[in-house]
Amino acid sequence: MPEKRQEVTTEGGLDVAGQRDKMRDACKRLADAGILVSLFIDADEEQIKAAAEVGAPFY
After folding, report:
1. Does pTM surpass 0.85?
2. First to last CA, the chain
């Protein structure tokens, strides 16, 4: 799913590191509803660490 209006398809992974608070809230709401959370991120150390920090167990 594209993140920007001008994209036809996603050009890369989510920017979890730049949106930690929003991602943390979304991951918690989904997990509280019993929904498994997985994030599509770039193979970047900062993004991997951020995904773990926001509570996405599958990244």
Report:
1. no
2. 17
